[in-house]
Amino acid sequence: MSDTRLKLAVQKSGRLAEGGLKLLERAGLRFAYGRDALHRRAENMPVDLMLVRDDDIPSFVAGGACDYGIVGENVLHEMQARSSRYREVETALKLGFARCTLKLAAPKGGDIRCAADLAGKSVATSYPGLTRAWLTERGIEAEIVEMRGSVEVAPRMKIADAICDLVSSGATLEANGLEAFETVLESEAVLIRRRNGRNGEVEATAKLLIQRAEGVIASAQ
Ligand code: PRT
Ligand code: ZN
Fold first, then answer.
1. What is the three-class DSSP state of 206?
2. Is 48 in the pocket of ligand 1 (CB under 6 A)?
């Protein structure tokens, strides 16, 4: 893989994978199979995809393993809240899919109805950086319980009093007897890059790709 080809990290499988590939294909990219399961090569533009876990994408972009990446704003902002390593990563384009909201929620009919009620309570979340920053900004002292998945079961399992989790339809909250009471972050898929450090050829390819993607996004709205 030469350094003049744009290296773009996309999720291997999951909620961002299909939308990301569809957008790139609509922007005119045609992909051949890559040399392994991790890579796919565009036949008609100097672009190589790297197929990875979404959580690793900000790190690949920050460290220079990839020039650009497609990731949810929730993941980007969580990484930025956790470490200064991600300060140099910026959003190049909002992509308009995989929209969701990071919300605080608690058991329906319980004694937590607003953010102030969280003082002295515990909040389960996979987004400890964003949740802590949001609470600290408001002067609310609550314990953060970090969970990798199934956050919605935490109150029922007595792991935590409330949760901070992604919501799209609201069905998961509803099924678990939870009610949202605050929005911490609105999120959608975004194209990210390092603020600087790409060469001229890669940047020329990126500019063209972004122009085409803007056209696709505008026509979808
Ligand atoms: O394997 P890998 O690590 O790559 O994937 P993943 O399992 O971490 O991520 P994935 O594919 O589930 O989500 C990727 C991205 O999609 C997230 O980072 C968000 O930016 C975006 N997205 C959009 C969502 C949702 N909508 C969403 N609803 N991510 C997760 N959810 C989950 C949420 O956590 C909760 O469990 O869906 C449930 C709530 O959905 P509703 O519809 O019941 O409200
Ligand atoms: Zn993930």
1. helix
2. no
How far does residue 167's CA lie from ligand 1's centre (Å)? Answer: 8
State the Cα–Cα distance between residues 128 and 132, nearest whole angstrom.
Answer: 6
Q: Which amino acid is at 179?
A: E
The answer to whether the CB of 165 falls within 8 A of the CB of 185 is no
Measured in Å, residue 17 CA sits from the centre of ligand 1 at: 11
Angle at 91 between CA 89 and CA 93, to 5 degrees: 150
Question: Closest Cα partner for 191 from 44, 23, 52?
Answer: 23
Architecture of the domain defined by 100-187: 3-Layer(aba) Sandwich (3.40)
Prediction ipTM score: 0.98
- CATH architecture entry for 6-98+188-220: 3-Layer(aba) Sandwich (3.40)
pLDDT at 34 over 90: no
Q: What are 72's two structure tokens?
A: 């949810």
Q: What is the pLDDT of residues 105-153, one digit of tens each?
A: 999 999 999 999 999 999 999 999 999 999 999 999 999 999 999 999 9
Counting ligand 1 atoms within 8 A of each CB, the residue from 38, 91, 100, 153 with the most, and so the one to mutate, is 100
* For the chain, domain boundaries: 6-98+188-220, 100-187
